[in-house]
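Invent a record, attention on tokens:
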Amino acid sequence: MFESLFDNDPLDLINMIRITGIREHEILTTEELRERRWDEIQGSINEHTRMLRQTERHTRQKAIQDPVHGAIIFDPWELDLISSWEMLRLRYVRQLGPAHLVYPGATHSRFEHCLGTSFLAQKCIRVVTYCDDLDTATFVSLSDLLDPYHQKLFRAVCLLHDVGHPPTSHTIEFALESYIGLSHIDLGEFLILHSGVNDILERHNIEPRHIVDILKRRTTDPIMSLISDFIDSPLDIDKTDYLIRDAHFSGVQLGIFPADLYFHHAVRVAEALTSKATYFRMKEDDLTRNECIGLFTRMTDGDLYRWLERSETDFIRDYAARIRYRHLFKVVTARPIALFEDEVRERISRMEHDIERLIEAELELNETPGTVIIDIVDPPLGAYFLSKIPVLAGGETGFDMVQLSETEEGKPLMQLLKQQQKSIPSVRVYSDPSIANNVRKRFEKLFPSSEKPSYREDDYDLTEY
């Protein structure tokens, strides 16, 4: 049995922070001295408990209508999970963070995505087959491979795989990992093992640690490893749902990787403003690890922006206001990473994974904190891993296992991904238009490239929507 990241943490204190939203030092001081505010804290806990006790346990199946997949049938134990406080929070966490500022329809939530991914797990159990014998081309149903417990576990994993997402989903994850070294999967581990989710799983005879082991790929059991592949691999059901769902709600054309949606410059600006504001706000408040775990598994998107608006730092409040009024920074310059000299590319690579280095570079472009944002767009597009996916190719004498890149059907896909690998990785700089020219000149001096930049002022209209 693997140890949890949180086995040595003060679980009662973290959950008290999560339930009340009150800072750690206030809880500890109040509890120790029994000051007047302890009644307020205890009142919040009692009210939380009272509301949870009103939640009825489900006794029959119900259908939930999904705009992408249609009616999804859930068993009582799944409905109990869906009704938990931890899952209900995801109704108010947008799947694409602030992308709705550019794509107005993209207001769908992590909650919807979790339901959709769980539906795809149900569908896999019903329709997926695997080849048990290549020579005789014998196919067996996945439902025969997974016993009833593993089928239930598979569905639970898919339902809970994003339960730990902080507000605005992936938008602030870099800030959170930089500050305390925890990802949304880590926060999900905390909730699965140490919240009401744990109680529901155990009541329905599902081992919570099995779910965590599958999500974190730390299981040696072959069946559980297979479930990990279904939820986390180059062609997993998590990506299948969010690609279809994101395209549906944003109105973009569905493709293998719709870069115009995920890397639209105005979306990236809004994400960068939110992420940087969150990082500086955490530093301003000097949040502890316990507070980060408790607060960011409590907050919704609205809670996050209200917290940013209460900052004592001018540019943090300014960032939050820019999101509210959609007065975003504009693109000053943008350049493919491939055009930079080797030394500059190494520096960019270090900045991409070190937020303090990134902030130092932004201050080199303008000395006033918060006036410039550098955005490094270098996503893992998965061309290498996709090319290695084994595919059954056969004829009259049986089947052979070949790599996707070796098939005629796979070659166009590989070509597209290789083109994206050349065109998508880039560095963008954002600022207010009033300082754009000076920022651009400094950037070109501090980050020289081997070729002249392709940027022209009309490439990114500084007054565009």
Residues 60-262 form a domain with the Hypothetical protein af1432 fold (CATH 1.10.3210.10).
